[in-house]
Amino acid sequence: MELRSMSDALQFHAQLLKVGIQNDDAARNVSKLFTFAALSPGGNLSYARLLLRSIPRPNSYYYNTIIRAYSRSPDPTHHFHALSLFLSMLHYQPPQPDNFTYPFLLKCLARLKLTPQGKQIHALITKTGFGSDQYIQNALIHMYSEFGELGFAREVFDRMPLRDVVSWTSMIDGLVNADRHVDALALFDSMLKAGIEVNDATVMSVLRACAETGALSVGKKVHMIVKEKRIDSKANVGTALVDMYAKSGCLESARNVFDNVVDKDVFVWTAMISALASHGMCQEAVGMFAEMETCRIEPDERTMTAVLSACRNSGLVNEAYVFLNDVPKRYGIEPTIQHFGCVVDLLARAGRLKEAEDFINTMPIKPDAVLWRTMIWACKLHGDTDRAGRLMKYLKLRKRTADDDSGSYILASNVYASSGKWCNKAEVRELMNRRGLTKPPGCSRIEVDGTVCEFSMGDYNHPEAEKIYDKLDQIVDEIRKEGYNPRVSEVLLEMDDEDKAIQLLHHSEKLALAYGLIRNRQGSEIRIVKNLRSCEDCHEFMKLVSKIYQREIIVRDRIRFHHFKNGDCSCKDYW
Ligand code: ZN
Ligand code: ZN
User: Fold this and answer.
1) Residue 572 CA, ligand 2 centroid: distance in Å
2) Rounded-to-5 percentages of helix, strand, coil across the chain
3) Which of the 8 DSSP states describes residue 421?
4) Strand (E) or helix (H) holding 564
5) Ligand 2 centroid vs 571 CA: distance in angstroms?
6) Rounded to two decimals, what is the model's pTM?
7) Is 519 in contact with 448 (CB distance < 8 Å)?
8) For labeling, which of 44, 107, 276, 334 is most exposed (least CB within 10 Å)?
């Protein structure tokens, strides 16, 4: 009898009870019933567990199947159940864990982030002789990556005599998730050299690393591979490609990929709308949203964020208000703090500081640290020191939460610094220290000859550091003739103006730019990716360099793109 639902299964079970479960045939039938209940979409896992109890001498298959079923569940309680079932195998039951037990068990441990237990079980695996099983090794790499223990993951990986696409992808994905994108790309290169064929998961991880680092040439290579494998029209791969091209500043390529995707889902639409938004093409983004609605694809929270950031990047206040009022009602989406944040950012940057503050006060959800940071940043931009001071009080009242970041404090202290109030600045610093917040390091990346180079402020680690600093001095001499004046008020430290100018000159994006001018072909574009917002001095610097050196410079900061050409920027100084 074929089992399609639990009611079929119950009927089948009743038949089995009638004939008894002693002979071989019956044992096969019990196994069939059990597997259906445990693993089929229409099954019932608790029923499978009950069955397990009624089986006289269950072999490891039964335990493994239940652990496997638990590992597929999104519910953490199930992952704990898997662990306790495994422990009962070790302590009370005759079937011992085998090579089919561990991969699923390790998956549960990874989900639960139980690092010490994971390490203990790894030791047990080695002791019981399963350490050389490829599936188990792959699962160990994945587990250690999820724990953030990349050293352990790498050790397992390096010791594998045979690595398949899953081993490579797990290791690459681990690096990408730990924001070690440059290492991930290097490993991907070794993977290709080892002649391993990529799969969807590899492509998606690698494209994420390309997008984050701006490694366009690697991204293009992946696109070629994907085309050869004819998976470029799949929605998941297409989404990753659109995102990579958009974040590398190639909007047209992103659009071509998008058009090529066959069954467009909400993710690929959202990626394309975000792409337009980050390039400041607000009208197009809003138009694309309408097109998506015509195709009867329902937007989600992220689509809303994409459209609202389009409005923010182009200063369209009314459009944003209308959108925030209409769309959530139409699709039953609960607006999130990101959505309100976009509107606050939009009002604040437009200088409508009071309106922004009123908006925050009437929001149905509590403002978070990012929102305050936005406000304080705007106060700095518009020179409203009093309001910044008042907002600081909100920060002091708030308890330290997970979303606290040092950004808001830095900005507040920046406001005080530029108005010369050193005493308040010290207060902010102290508050930061007490809450264990330190400034995130700024860094910029540039791709030269297919390799991504990373610079931090005042970096001397690069082999060509000397040349780079010489180039910088030379650039400053050139652009000073065009009226460049270092904006020393941007520097927070107490020092004289000459030292401040040197500080500014050593900002990571300027180092990357100088290196780009040395190494990139004459006339080619220079693409830089920065992890934070650029300062005003760097922005001005890029504009002047684009004019004097006749180079297009594309800088992606934390929020958007700046396309510098002929002394102007695509953001029209609105960022
Ligand atoms: Zn700067
Ligand atoms: Zn700009």
Assistant:
1) 6
2) 65, 5, 30
3) -
4) strand 561-565
5) 4
6) 0.75
7) yes
8) 334
Element (H or E) spanning 16, and its range? Answer: helix 6-19
Cα(562) to centroid(ligand 2), Å = 4
Dump the DSSP string for 93-138: -SSPP-TTTHHHHHHHHHHHT-HHHHHHHHHHHHHTT-TT-HHHHH
Distance 191 CA to ligand 1 centre (A): 37
Q: Which of 114-128, 166-180, 189-203, 481-495 has the lowest mean pLDDT?
A: 481-495
Give the ligand at the shortest distance from the Cα of 538: 1
Centroid of ligand 2 to alpha carbon of 237 (angstroms): 30
How many A from CA of 151 to the centre of ligand 2? 39
What's the pLDDT band for 90 if we cut at 50, 70, 90? confident
Spatial neighbors of 515 by CB under 8 A, at least 6 apart, are 446, 448, 453, 455, 462, 464, 468, 471
Contacts of 151 (CB under 8 A, 6+ apart): none
Whether residue 143 contacts residue 109, with contact meaning beta carbons closer than 8 Å, is answered with yes
Compute the distance between CA of residue 428 and CA of residue 422 in angstroms, rounded to an integer: 10
Q: Which of 394-398, 401-405, 463-467 has the lowest mean pLDDT?
A: 401-405
Helix axes of 165-177 and 181-193: crossing angle, nearest 10 degrees: 170
Joined together, the tokens standing for residue 521 give: 């072909």
The mean of the pLDDT values for the chain is 87
Q: Give the tens place of pLDDT for each residue, 311-350.
A: 888 888 998 999 999 999 999 999 998 899 889 988 988 8
Taking the centre of ligand 1 as the mean of its atom positions, its distance from the CA of residue 514, in whole angstroms, is 14
How large is the angle between the packed helices 45-54 and 60-72, nearest 10 degrees? 160
Structure tokens at 542: 């890029």
Distances (CA, A) of 307 to 88, 244, 301, 370, 474: 52, 19, 10, 19, 42
> What ligand has the least distance to the C-alpha of 500?
1
Ligand nearest to the CA of 504: 1
Ligand nearest to C-alpha 511: 1
Half-sphere exposure of 575 (CA within 13 A, CB side): 26
Phi first, then psi, for residue 351 (nearest 5°) are 85, 5
Q: Which ligand is nearest to the CA of 509?
A: 1
Residue 281 alpha carbon to ligand 1 centre in Å: 25
Q: How far away, in angstroms, is 405 Cα from ligand 2 center? A: 24
User: Ligand 2 mean position to 446 CA, how many Å?
Assistant: 18
Q: Looking at the CA of 554, which ligand is closest?
A: 2
Distance in Å, CA 413 to ligand 1 centroid:
16
The lowest-confidence range among 49-63, 202-216, 361-375, 415-429 is 415-429
Tokens 């029923």 correspond to what residue?
47
Q: Which residues make up the environment of ion ligand 1, defined by Cβ < 5 Å?
A: 507, 535, 538
Ligand nearest to the CA of 513: 1
Structure tokens at 244: 């990579």
Distance 441 CA to ligand 1 centre (A): 12
d(CA 140, CA 152): 9
